[in-house]
């Protein structure tokens, strides 16, 4: 396994790439699209465990554009906020570097990554043949109606330049004023995991990179505006999946602050009414956290993959 910065990519990005145990043209390419912030290091444990279980998979996790901690120019760059459409097009471009015509593709995403995964499946320029779509704690409809979405929508309404302000505050707190030990302890306490863990190390990289903070919150603002009543798109996607025999797998958290109970139920009803039963799998976990990568990587691989 290696995480590397793709210097030749159109937009700044890094990938986590795990090769199959026995490479073959017919081996599936498993594509993972992260949530927000879209830093692939958060998913190292999860994807390693997944590869141990399915070693015939080639695994490709793609950071969101502008959120690559390996970017040598990250601190110098202050790009415009990359939109949801930018991020989706960017994922298709990177997938195409690793895929080929008719290669089996398993495309899965976490949180807003699930929204992107849905759009990737419908992308006309995508190379490969999608056989399965996975949506893990997905924020694909009405994110602004969730508990956290409501709070964030209000914050963006009242604080016009929130992404820039948050980036400045994070830089002051975690780069200019605090010690490394203090930063580790604060993040460890907040996340409830050991300070030597990957989630803590990754979160430390996040808070010490103000440009990633700015991009992540800028993207979040667009999520609140755009991921709303997307039911016509959901029907279009379902029709495409039914026509092409694409399996779809949902894994919901029963206590998800980013997906309201009403939204979850509406999605489940809509898909069960419109999707072919044999190709649809929906699970609702009482134990899974929205940010499962912090403590539940082994659990989700054991129970739902």
Automatic annotation (TrEMBL):
Pfam families for the chain: LIDHydrolase
SUPFAM superfamilies, per database record: alpha/beta-Hydrolases
Broad class of the protein's primary localization: other
GO MF annotation: an example: triacylglycerol lipase activity
Annotated Gene Ontology cellular component terms: lipid droplet
GO biological process entries: lipid storage; triglyceride catabolic process
Keyword tags: Hydrolase, Lipid droplet
Domain of life (superkingdom): Eukaryota
Any coiled-coil regions, as ranges: none
Name of the protein this chain belongs to: AB hydrolase-1 domain-containing protein
